[in-house]
User: Fold Transporter from Virgibacillus natechei.
Amino acid sequence: MPAQKDQWSTKLGFILSSAGAAIGLGAIWKFPYMTGMNGGGAFFLLFILFTIIIGLPILLAEFIIGRGSQKEAISAYQTLAPKSGWSIIGRWGVVGAFLLMSFYSVVGGWVLIYSALSIPGMIIQDNTDYSELFATITENPLIVIVGLASFLIINIAVVSLGIKNGIEKASKLLMPLLFIFFIIIVIRALTFEGAMEGVTFFLQPDFSMITTEGVLYALGQSFFSLAVGFSVMVTYSSYLNKDISLPMSAGSVSIMNIIVSFLAGLAIFPVVFSFGLEPAEGPGLLFIVLPEAFAQMPFGELFLSLFLLLFLFAIMTSSFSMLEIITSAFTEGKQRSRRKVAVIAGSIVFLAGIPAALSSNVLADFTIFGLTVFDATDYLVSNILLPGGCLLIALFIGFKMDKTLMIKEFAYSNKLSTGLYEVWFQIMRWVAPITIIIVFLSTIFDI
Assistant:
């Protein structure tokens, strides 16, 4: 490994940064409304099962590929499988992360704007129509473009500083604050009259509400919320020393992700049901339903500000990883300035994000297969590119990567039995790819 290669300074920094990469829009924005639209508890249970059985093993696979190669996403597969076509997985990941960030940053801009407005108390006002407020913000081209640009400027600034001084320091500060804010909001949400109705909806499975498309969404949600499929975690783990257990780290990140998704449900559904609101609101759940609910409670503006800041912290730690995989692909092993590449990459993402940002206004009537640019990009990334990337990674582990290297990376700094390695390997070789293919086919043929 080149001496100048940046590294995580501590195990905690790596875990918090990896958890931050995983915990973002997937856990706090997308998970609640996907759960609300797909039957509540049944979707949550499927999400947990997919996360443990498929998502966790793939997360561990990305860790093993990254540290085993000591390279960023594209070079990792070129190093482990030279003179082969497997490097397409890394390129798939960089392109996927780019597309994901192009619409992800739009939502980040919305949250940044809402956060800025909530701190001086400008959101919760008498007789405010929150649907109209959301429309006013998202349908104003100038506002959404400024929000998009501001969000990306913050990302560029952090990623330009590198792994140890940028992403790790930011994650060590933001992730503990995220959990603290979450616990405060959950405690407040559970004190409302009728809160248990929301808890029941969230935790009591009703499989009659699940469709084959809902199963695909649950699978895609498990990948989206763990940030697997685009080799983001390959890049993150390439900065990791050998004295850290990869299985334990993957387990820690997965557990933290499930806990945050659980807390998101407990923070949102009790409030929604207590105030007679609609859990299947969709993407506007956090921007329309929750402000309306917070407006009806004492100190509502304070709790709304806390929630929006929590949301902003989660989105940022996740978006850092997306810009990092793009930046590292063009800087590692090359005589290029990280700052310059981060600025260029962020600027290109900004340009690519403009059509998604304008999907609620100027380009509202422009559709792709009946979907706006924003929704089409979301669907492509979440339900095609992410599962497709996970399928390719599973096949690479199961049929191409050197088994001796995998066993070494699996066994470093832990006392897990070789039997557990074999279980993981068989999941990657057979269970993960077969499950992904079956879910895809069942959705295509509406089985």
Q: What stands out?
A: The longest helix spans residues 88-118. The CA atoms of residues 86 and 396 lie 7 Å apart. The chain has a mean pLDDT of 89.
